[in-house]
Amino acid sequence: MKKSVWQLIAVLVVAAMVLAACAPGPVETEAPVEPTQAPAEPTKAPEQPAEAPTAEPVVEEPASFLEAAFAGEYSGTVVTMAGPFTDEDAVKFNAAVADFEEKTGIDIQYEGSKEFETTISIRVDGGDAPDIADFPQPGLLANFVRDGKVVDVSQFLDMEKLQANYNQSWLDMAMMESPDGEIMAGVWQRVNGKSLVWYPKDDFEVAGYEIPQTWDEMLALSDQIVADGDTPWCIGIESGTATGWPATDWMEEVMLRTTSLENYDKWVSGELKFSSPEVKAAAEKVGEIWLNDEYVYGGRASIVTTFFGDAPAPMFEDPAKCYFHKQGNFITSFFPAGVEAGVDYGFFYLPPIDEAYGKPVLVAGDIMAMFNDRPEVRAVMEFFTTGASVESWVRSGGAISPHLDSSLDWYSNDVDRGVAEIILNATSLRFDASDLMPGEVGAGSFWKGMTDWVSGTVDLDTALAEIDAAWPK
């Protein structure tokens, strides 16, 4: 009996074990559920690293070629330059870029030449153009632009930054026609102003005269000086084979003050003739001063025989023989030795004629153009759009910065500082028209025509017609 019972128990145990082995276990049925829900928490984890890549370009990648240069990306490269800077100017230019070279590792190799206009043409035509060239005459640069030899810098420069750091007129004057349409042919680095009237400060103040704010006030003061028994103006345009060029500056000044910038630009390009009413009216306005023997020291006849560098000398006689001389800021190098700015002489802005045209300033300067397109060359060009590129030159004297990020505190003398202030506050700017015109006109018939008219050899209509006749067909 007991044996039967134990046999029965054994059978039941075995059966239970078989059933247990065949049934699905609770751990294995729920185990897959845990993994499918567990990642539900980490599924948000990828969102955190997903944000990191969006920030990387801002932090790690330079926003411009200039920033890349300062990050050392172009260290060891060479950028070649050519221009007219020689002697002291070359020393000052190299000093102005020295800090940039040290911080970036880019070697700027500048080759200056007094025959720059000839050498640059030979190099470009021979396929040996420098990476960058410094043009003091935009008209020469325009020739290379027309031939498709110049890089459009607007392709890589930030236009918003340019507009924030330049008077719009500087940007407008950099636009030139190429085979592919209008391009930005370069950037302005060093400039100078021409819309200046110099006067003998001590004699002027003793006489009780005040700086005129308008053209009419200037003429009224001229009349007062005549009434006081003196002569208001010293003028001279003799310059050897270049005789007449100072007269072109006067014409340009009056054009900017009596007609629109559009007309000025058309005049430069030949669309607006010298014989047009606008240009003739400007010449007549110049004549109100030049052809008045009471206004000019030595009379009208002396204008064409007086060397332009000697013209201001009578201002410094005791007492002064004249009170006004219009010329660019370079003229101080012709002043007598020992005279002091702010004591012996001062200057003021050549006043506006028609308030509708604001306070324009006639300028000259250096525009940097790019011939070879490489990252390090782009970086140097971008550097030239900043005041830092000319700061040390400004501090040492002899340079005016067109950049709005420059400081008037950089200027070491009152003359440079005053000229810079006039340029920075100008409502509009335009380059010397004669330097932009074809050589046959700007350095030919324009000079001669003005000289012939002032000397009385021909009348105004004849002079203007002869200038027009020389325009290339």
Automatic annotation (TrEMBL):
Residues 29-55 are annotated as: Disordered. Keywords: Signal, Transport. Residues 1-23 form the signal peptide. Residues 34-55 have a biased composition (Low complexity). InterPro entries: Bact_solute-bd_prot1, SBP. Pfam families: SBP_bac_8. SUPFAM superfamilies: Periplasmic binding protein-like II (SSF53850). Gene3D superfamilies: Periplasmic binding protein-like II. Belongs to the bacterial solute-binding protein 1 family. This is ABC transporter substrate-binding protein. It comes from Ornatilinea apprima.
